[in-house]
Q: What sequence folds into this?
């Protein structure tokens, strides 16, 4: 049975790829004759090749897919098999991505006369448009087949996972394509508005086409998920992973734009005429970071709202693990930016104070001070937004939080070691020198390394305290007897104002049922409170119909 499925769907996939390639290039060659292109006559041999590919691949694909469909219609297990869904969703993903790319390039050639005042290349636009039509037709055919199979026999386990891989990869690619292209289009338009022109060989039609193609790919699959799969996917790991990757990109791009804007503003406020080599026209220099902040800032807000809606009910274990990994990774990266900014800023101030003492001219402090202050402020804002010193018990004892704390400790200790070596080296260079010179510029390294030690030590001490605090809240380990099987705990939660003592009832040789009385709390609060149970424990909330006073 499995070998038969494998044969049918492998041949169907290979024949379908050959059919798609043949149709695309056959149509492109026919369009050469339709547009009276000079290369049409020399393309007759290619016309024969692509016609042969299409004529051979079509019946091979049609017969094998028809046979596979006959078996699927007779047997519900065959129709719901993972191999069948793998074929269908692989074709859907491949054709969806190919359709986005070909449509983006087709729109680029169509938009060139509008955005860039270039002549229309109708032949190339038509060829790419035909390729998009072929990809969309194949996508629609296989998407409808998969939808009918899902409606007839359902979709669970590996089949549902394959569908999520297809849809959320397509969603992520479409969203990131749309956002990056929109930011680039806004940057080019901003630059053209300020300067009157843009750099040669940069075309506004390129991001304009990609924006529309990415938006179509994203909106089609977002609509399909919202209409048919939202209840099944709300707590899936892949949905959470897609959302956190998208929000991570949005946060990174938006904060980079905000950092650049703040850096330029501080530099100009301190009197630097050419901040960061961006030029003297500050409004034109803000086109790139301003576009990133505007586009990705809006995306950040909207995606975070979606993630918050998904998290209003209880998270699945792996979904919560993805959230914790993202949160602690964002906290670690922002901590590094904050620490670097603080060390450079403190070092710049110490060098400016040390230079007059040893009798040399202080180096320029304005540009490094503005850049380090920007990193410090932005890094601190992101770190405070993600870091919680005392979160819920499950988050506090998670592996990703431990990795964050130990990584911060390791980085701070290594920084103290490096700073200490540099500090002692700056002192001993003059002690061991045959001709000590107090006015040597290398003596300024003393202030830089001292700043590094101070900042790293502060971060290390703080995270050492966090580590001890987390260890103190860790529940004690219970040594399980070998003869006792893992317990299954069922908790019946009810809301009442009466004091009731918990009672235990033996329901099996190795299981007990506990009645837990909870007051002034909702179901989410109970889930969070019980999140620190041992891994082998299990619980189930059964809402009671009884209200206060038995009414």
A:
């Amino acid at each position: 049975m499995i070998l038969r499925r494998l044969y049918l769907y492998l041949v169907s996939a290979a024949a379908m790829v050959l059919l798609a390639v043949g149709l695309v290039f056959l149509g492109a060659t026919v369009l050469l004759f339709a547009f009276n292109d000079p290369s049409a006559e020399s393309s007759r041999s290619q016309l024969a090749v692509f016609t042969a590919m299409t004529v051979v691949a079509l019946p091979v694909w049609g017969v094998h897919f028809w046979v596979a469909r006959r078996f699927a219609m007779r047997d519900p297990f065959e129709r719901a098999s993972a191999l069948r869904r793998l074929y269908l969703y692989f074709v859907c993903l491949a054709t969806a991505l190919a359709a986005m790319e070909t449509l983006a390039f087709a729109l680029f050639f169509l938009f060139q006369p509008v955005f860039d005042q270039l002549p229309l290349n109708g032949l190339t636009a038509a060829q790419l448009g035909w390729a998009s039509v072929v990809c969309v037709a194949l996508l629609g055919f296989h998407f409808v087949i998969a939808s009918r199979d899902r409606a007839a026999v359902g979709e669970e386990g590996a089949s549902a996972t394959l569908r999520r891989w297809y849809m959320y990869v397509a969603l992520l690619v479409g969203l990131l394509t749309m956002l990056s292209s929109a930011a680039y289009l806004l940057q080019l338009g901003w630059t053209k508005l300020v300067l009157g022109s843009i750099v040669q060989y940069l075309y506004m039609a390129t991001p304009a086409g990609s924006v529309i193609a990415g938006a179509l790919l994203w909106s089609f699959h977002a609509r399909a998920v919202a209409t048919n799969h939202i209840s099944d996917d709300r707590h899936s790991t892949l949905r959470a992973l897609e959302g956190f990757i998208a929000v991570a990109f949005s946060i990174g791009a938006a904060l980079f734009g905000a950092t650049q804007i703040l850096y330029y503003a501080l530099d100009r406020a301190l009197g630097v005429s050419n901040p960061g080599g961006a030029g003297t026209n500050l409004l034109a220099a803000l086109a790139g970071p301003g576009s990133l902040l505007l586009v990705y800032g809006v995306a950040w807000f909207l995606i975070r709202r979606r993630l918050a809606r998904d998290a209003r009910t209880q998270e699945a274990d792996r979904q919560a693990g993805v959230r914790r990994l993202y949160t602690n990774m964002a906290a670690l990266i922002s901590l590094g930016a904050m620490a670097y900014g603080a060390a450079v800023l403190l070092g710049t101030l110490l060098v400016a104070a040390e230079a007059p003492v040893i009798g040399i001219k202080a180096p320029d402090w304005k540009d490094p001070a503005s850049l380090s202050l920007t990193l410090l402020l932005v890094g601190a804002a992101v770190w405070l937004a993600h870091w919680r010193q005392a979160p819920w018990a499950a988050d506090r004892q998670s592996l990703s939080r431990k990795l964050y704390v130990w990584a911060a400790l390791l980085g701070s200790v290594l920084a103290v070691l490096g700073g200490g070596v540099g500090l002692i080296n700056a002192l001993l260079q003059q002690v061991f020198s045959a001709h000590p010179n107090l006015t040597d510029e290398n003596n300024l390294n003393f202030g830089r390394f001292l700043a590094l030690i101070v900042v790293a030590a502060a971060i290390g001490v703080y995270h050492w305290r966090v580590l001890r605090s987390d260890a103190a809240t860790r529940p004690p380990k219970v040594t399980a007897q070998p003869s006792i099987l893992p317990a299954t705990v069922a908790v019946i939660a009810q809301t009442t104002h009466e004091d009731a003592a918990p009672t235990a009832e033996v329901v099996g040789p190795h299981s007990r049922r506990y009645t837990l009385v909870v007051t002034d709390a909702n179901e989410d609060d109970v889930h969070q409170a019980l999140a620190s149970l041992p891994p082998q424990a299990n619980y189930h909330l059964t809402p009671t119909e009884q209200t206060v006073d038995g009414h």
About this structure: Residues 425 and 432 are 10 Å apart (CA to CA). Residues 480-510, 546-551 have pLDDT under 50 and may be disordered. The first strand starts at residue 489 and ends at 494. The beta strands are 489-494, 504-508, 511-517.
